């Protein structure tokens, strides 16, 4: 009779295990790849990262606006008691060019009884066409040229900055997904072993009622059930928090989405992680980091600082602006004498050039500082990549070891249950074996989570979110 009850207990126990593992509660999976796709497409912080490029494009447009042609009109008149004192019109059309040369066409007209004689013009007005040329400062580089060059470099830099900002969002969202999966797996684990403990408790009660087991076994089995209940409630609380954290990254268009209970994490994540993150394809030679967005950003920063250095070096030259304008009545340029013109020269030069030399030295020091920073960043990136690759490889080995441990503990538990059916074991020993297996499974879940995070960290270091 005892052997029969024990065999029935084991049979019910095995059937319970099979049923628990077969249940999926009609849940559907949200794969990690699918989740990242939603984050890349809809998350506001990723969209904000894309705005960096738009801002750089707008700034470049502003810089190019310095070369836009300009129309200027200045009209001044005075009339008092029926007498026109003066009416002075000055208009011009200016075209700035790349090398500081400015082409200008103008029309002036003056009328009235009282005006400055130097403003006198022919009856039909006076036209002028000419150029203004900087022969010192501003010929080979000036503020307008520097702004455009910097704007183009900032546009290149903005793509690197966009990638760096986007990768931070993708990393934090990945960490939230892995935390959700870890919490989900722990809930599933405690749910399974709570069911096992409840079946074992009911079977022990039956054996006690038949007089085939000591009453103390019910206390042992009951303690296990309560411990499993406590662990399960704690795991459920962690899962709730993990789902809320994950919901921060779930958006559809501009609407936040709440993660439903019918959605579960990807069960085959270990098999698809490499395909999703593609870290093996992105791995680059640690000694060749020019394609890394952080390095590209710092290199572009040095190029921008070099433009500032050129501009400050140009300030050491004297200001020498020369302008020549041909004057004529409207429509009579062909018949107007060539010796009718307006000519001007503007020259200035500080004696000691201390301010200019100081600005140039500051510009050179900034370049030197940025160069040191670039070298340090190269070294840190190289070491980070090597260290993270080593961590991923180590965790992969640890995963193999913990898998083997779980199999061994499972075998030990199965053997103990078989011995129990022959009356050669006890509930205490089964619980002990099962606790070891549960701890091993928890370690397995923890190492898997560390493995996921280490791959995400390598993805973050390589910084290629596209």
Low-pLDDT segments, ≥5 res: 1-24
What is the H/E order? HEHHEEEEHHEEEHHHEEHH
Roughly what percent helix?
A: 55-70%
* Chain oligomer state: single chain
Structural class of the secondary structure composition?
Answer: alpha+beta
Could you characterize what this model shows?
The protein is an alpha+beta fold and 466 residues long. It has a domain at 2-63 and 145-305 and 364-462: Outer membrane efflux proteins (OEP) (Up-down Bundle), CATH 1.20.1600. Helix content is 62%, strand content 15%. It has helices at 2-22, 32-42, 44-64, 143-209, 216-247, 269-277, 279-282, 293-314, 354-421, 427-462, and strands at residues 28-30, 70-80, 83-96, 102-111, 126-134, 251-252, 255-256, 263-265, 319-328, 341-348. Strands 2-3-4-5-9-10 form a 6-stranded antiparallel sheet, with no helix packed on it. It has a two-stranded parallel ribbon with strand order 1-8. A two-stranded antiparallel sheet has the order 6-7. Strand 2 and strand 3 form a beta hairpin. Helix 1 runs antiparallel to helix 4. The radius of gyration is 40 Å and the shape is elongated.
Question: Any key phrases for this structure?
Answer:
466 residues, alpha+beta, two-stranded parallel sheet, 10 helices, elongated, disordered N terminus
Question: Quick recap of the structure?
Answer:
The protein has helices spanning 2-22, 32-42, 44-64, 143-209, 216-247, 269-277, 279-282, 293-314, 354-421, 427-462, and strands at 28-30, 70-80, 83-96, 102-111, 126-134, 251-252, 255-256, 263-265, 319-328, 341-348.
